[in-house]
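Sat 14:20. Reprocessing the chain from the morning session after the first attempt stalled halfway. Input below, unchanged.
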Amino acid sequence: MKSFKSPKGLQRWSLEMRTQGTPVALVPTMGFLHQGHISLMRRARRAVGKSGKVVVSIYVNPSQFGKGEDFKTYPRNLTRDLQLCGQEKVDAVFIPDNAAMYPGDYSTFVLEEDVSSSLEAVTRPTHFRGVTTIVCQLFNIAQPEVAIFGEKDFQQAITIKRMVRDLHLPVRILIAPTCREQDGLAMSSRNAYLSPNQRQQATVLYQMILRARELVNQGKPSSWNPVRLQKALEPMLLETPGVRLDYLAFVDSEHLRPMQRVTRGCRMLLAAYLGSTRLIDNARL
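Finished this time. Tokens:
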């Protein structure tokens, strides 16, 4: 497994691979890898085959963290991350430092202004500018034919797809299914922040999704308006006092626009705090 710290080093290697006709797949991560990340690596391998190359980037990107967020405390374990990448037979890892990605006079940012303007953006107004900027950098550095993102961060994945479309970037975006714990909690590096009691309470996010699916499937077409459906789910939050809802939305899966009527096939997204830890989840109803 090759290891690159220099953007130019990875770029030269990736361009050489592409020149040889060897496809490259990129899995961007912020490290502290878990089974969800491993599933992305395996999806990347399937996308390029045994003869292709899988690159995993491990970089906690400061520009996607807002003031007062957990950049300094975000969980990190590079030694374990590299071990997991090796076990998955990743071909190369990219582990740059901040100086490599954001030199002192750095002044260029990428901003998508439609699908990234709601939901997460209300609480984290600078988040997606940081995401699109770093992902655009990674695409230019790693020169991938395909990049893999997780469905758990659905708004992020749709934002990146829009950026790729609008900027005519030669990258195919694959969105892999959310990996969940046995009790349904979406796998996330931030789950490490949860106390045992919070960890148990956090399952209410997925339980709300399951209940929404049940109600929508039982109802007649166009029978649920969003306000009525949210009120039907509120008792689950009242029974879990440690959870503070940030948002709950029912949107279409392409433009993330609010649905006037909640029907099968729309997307439910929600975010909630457990103490100071903020978790997100989503699913197709």
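The longest strand covers residues 243-251.
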